[in-house]
């Protein structure tokens, strides 16, 4: 039976994507890398190092490890500065209502974000205490689409993967949920997330009833 629901962060509970994009764009401009809003689509749900690798590939440029690490730190500094403007107003509509319904049904709530800034973000959104467990992206070996972060989150909640369901907005995230042996709820269209088991346009549209029936499929 279903015991826990594991949420992705960016694109599911809040929209940090624009701030990630602006930070990558500033880095690309400063280093003469080819990058724009269109190219940014490929970075959705991809971890920090994986994102920089994609940008460098697009430019056809290679950098030595020390420079690569320095560029990651530079991007993150820009992103973290932008997070200072975050408040509970940045939480997507309907999240608190959904969390309250999950709690009332006796379900646990977990967070499985690729972001190493996830704890800071949920604290600023005012929902840090809502989670039974927040998986640490820095502590898992393989990033999404590998199942590691979802498995770590289930384990941290004291649940087995088959007792959990995952909620994601990125294709790599849906793949990670399925690889973990969980049912996957997609936030977005069927075209964008062809592999998801059910689709809702936004988190505010997702109900406890849909979660419970998705689990039974
Ligand atoms: P950080 P999610 C992901 O968050 C973002 O979608 C992705 O754009 C970002 O590169 C990644 O987190 C890593 O973030 O640089 O803060 O560690 O969708 O998995 O919540
Ligand atoms: Mg996401």
UniProtKB/TrEMBL annotation:
Binding-site residues, Mg(2+): 8, 10, 168-169
- Of the parent protein, the shown chain spans 751 to 967 of 986
Q: Which family does it belong to?
A: Belongs to the HAD-like hydrolase superfamily. CbbY/CbbZ/Gph/YieH family.
Residues where substrate binds: 8-10, 24, 43-48, 51, 75, 113-117, 144
What is the protein name stated in its UniProt record? Answer: Beta-phosphoglucomutase
What residues does the record give for site: Important for catalytic activity and assists the phosphoryl transfer reaction to Asp8 by balancing charge and orienting the reacting groups?
Answer: 113, 144
- State the organism of origin: Sphingopyxis alaskensis (strain DSM 13593 / LMG 18877 / RB2256) (Sphingomonas alaskensis)
This protein's source sits in the domain of life called Bacteria
Active-site annotation: 8 (nucleophile), 10 (proton donor/acceptor)
